[in-house]
Design goal:
There is one protein chain. It contains 11 helices and 10 strands. The protein has about 270 residues and is of the alpha/beta class. It has 2 domains: about 15-210, 2-enoyl-CoA Hydratase, Chain A, domain 1 (Alpha-Beta Complex); about 215-260, Orthogonal Bundle (Lyase 2-enoyl-coa Hydratase, Chain  A, domain 2), CATH 1.10.12. The N and C termini lie far apart (about 45 Å). It holds the Pfam family ECH_1.
């Protein structure tokens, strides 16, 4: 979308680092924040940079306009049906880039919070489900409607089925019916429901609170949470026990325990 003042195209993703929190804002409101290749690439680049920035300790993903994200950009996809290969190369590349973003979110050391203000559809629902926490406005809706256009939401199903019970995921995938924020919270897709007017402020406050913890403890915890989640029980406890030992040997654990016993505020060194 052109910038009326400069004639330049507005960035598809806006990043703002404030203190220890990075905020990524999807900025294609006229296209319902569809995940074009340009937006996927911008998300990938931002997440790569954030992952290596030790000064950043939490991330918020939000969106401009009334829609959080409508999924893949269907106009961009449709344009490639006329390719010599019927669009095969483009579709494969698009799905690979999207999968890379969805895997980068749990892989970055910092916790990632989605602030969903409107409809999160298909890969937009996938984007929310991939995040560590989801805050939803009261008017937010979540939907995986691909089956209605003959395109089952197979890739959104990956993140969705890891965020909610399988039968709840299958109901969303097979019926294509949108669920409201209350139902999304009931099945575990959403952590908190907030008035739309305060969604961004509440997301920023939560991110700042998390960023105020020991970065070492939080990042070690996130990494090992995801590692153990898919393991059998005995292996999960092996991973978790090793993580606890690693954490106990860190300076911040000694500081935190000492501060607790001494009834004072801890002074984190993040190591």
């Amino acid at each position: 979308m052109p910038d009326g003042a400069s004639g330049m195209a507005a960035p598809v993703l806006v990043r703002e680092d404030r203190g220890a929190v990075a905020t990524l804002t999807l900025n294609r409101p006229a296209a319902r924040n569809g995940l074009s290749l340009a937006l996927l690439d911008a998300l990938s680049a931002a997440l790569r940079d954030i992952a290596t920035n030790s000064g950043l300790r939490c991330v918020v993903i939000q969106a401009e306009g009334p829609v959080f994200c409508a999924g893949h950009d269907l106009k961009e996809i449709t344009a490639h049906f006329a390719d010599a290969d019927g669009g095969h190369a483009f579709f494969a590349d698009s799905m690979a880039r999207c999968a890379a973003v969805m895997q980068a979110i749990p892989a970055v050391p910092q916790p990632v919070i989605a602030a969903v203000q409107g409809m999160a559809t298909a890969a937009g629902c996938q984007l929310a489900a991939a995040c560590d926490m989801v805050l939803a406005a009261e008017e937010a809706r979540f939907c995986t409607p691909g089956v209605e256009i003959g395109l089952f939401c197979s890739t959104p199903a990956v993140a969705l089925s890891r965020a909610v019970p399988r039968k709840a995921a299958m109901e969303m995938l097979l019926t294509a019916e949108p669920i409201d924020a209350a139902e999304a919270r009931r099945i575990g897709l959403v952590n908190r429901i907030l008035p739309g007017a305060s969604l961004r402020a509440e997301a920023a406050a939560l991110a700042a609170r998390i960023a105020g913890r020991s970065a070492l403890a939080v990042q070690l915890g996130k990494r090992n949470f995801h590692r153990q989640a898919g393991l059998p029980l005995a292996e999960a406890y092996e991973v978790a026990a090793a993580a606890m030992v690693e954490n106990l040997l860190a300076e911040d654990a000694a500081e935190g325990i000492g501060a607790f016993l001494g009834k004072r505020a801890p002074e984190w060194r993040h190591r």
